[in-house]
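Sat 14:20. Reprocessing the chain from the morning session after the first attempt stalled halfway. Input below, unchanged.
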Amino acid sequence: MSTVDKLAILGGEKAIPQQFALYNPIGSEEVAAAAAVVESGVLSQFIGRGGTDFLGGPKVREFEQAMSEYFDVEHAISVNSWTSGLIASVGALDIEPGDEIIVTPWTMCASATAILIWNAIPVFADIDPQTFCLDPKSVEDNITPHTRAIMSVDIGGHPANTDALNAIAKKHGLKVISDTAQAPGATLRDKFAGTLTDLGGYSLNYHKHIHTGEGGVVVTNDSNLAERVRLIRNHGEHVAHDIGLSQINNIIGFNFRLGEIESAIGIAQLKKLDKFVATRRRAAERLTQGLKDLAGLETPFVAPDCTHSYYMYFMKVDPEITGVSRNDIHKALVAEGVPGLGTSYANIHLLPMYQQKIAYGKAGFPWKSDICRREVSYAKGICPVAEDLQDRTYLGFQMCMHEMTDAEVDAMVQAFHKVWRNMHLLPQLDGQNVKAS
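Finished this time. Tokens:
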């Protein structure tokens, strides 16, 4: 066996000897936009009281208008992070302490933490084994008399089954939030993910499709919800007095305001979003074409009538077919130089906060208090699909972190094929002095 075909983990040459270029969408347009704001001297124009400046400065409003037009929604409300957007969205729903909101465990922790911020109770439903988004059947199974909303997550860039979730919500009188942080530009029946529910929105942090450093945008076609999000964003308890607002529940004084520099960069970035999504989609489709025939490897699924924006490239390994554990395959691929490859994503319900039911203070609030109306289980076993992915089958690539030229995609394909050709050698690694990656 030549050193080229010999597995790198056994001392052979790496299939990918050089690092991939990191994703950097910032160009001269963004530099000029940011410089113009600095030169203007207006870095923020928000005031936490009624009046025109309650809505922010000129670039904030221009960015929000551009987002509203691009995503074809009535309202786009910028915030200083998508976590802030989630918190504001949950608060806007008129929920009470102890109300339950169903959420996926297969997401960034902020999706569920935003529920706890309002002293509501996250209830975890399982995920679809193909899209990794919320499974509508599991959602239905987890609805109780205390359920008030569903938080759907368009994870990895694939839209959730919004039609089914909306139907469940209508049946039970619930609201739906779309956490579309990872899927701007993805569509369901030619409508943008994030725009098909009561509230949705997108992340703007450094490895997302639109990159302003930090930031987020909430979108909705509901004027009442939009007003409540704006109030929660900007010291609403004071502004509610100024505007004579009567429904003041959950209008609490946060500062979730986005600055003028970030908004100016966002305006420039939004003009490139189609290109950013197309570039990742092209790379992902080329990768899928190259990997599709590898036995025991399942490449990303795209549901009918959907498009995928590929923030992540989600795969599954079937150890019964490969005869080798997912973890050993992962070690071999990393040794070959495959970047950003992971075996762990999220099982939020298994985090210590949920296992110990400790959030506010040390006494177990809100779960061990009068506001929690039933015993909610976070035991391992409640989300078997998500848990099996984490424990045994998930393999994922961070497409968000790289530019992904055709040559880089082809190098990844070669690395995978090299490992698959030598799969029979991987069970022998235990106890050997293998080469570190």
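The domain at 8-25+273-345+387-429 is CATH 3.90.1150.10 (Aspartate Aminotransferase, domain 1).
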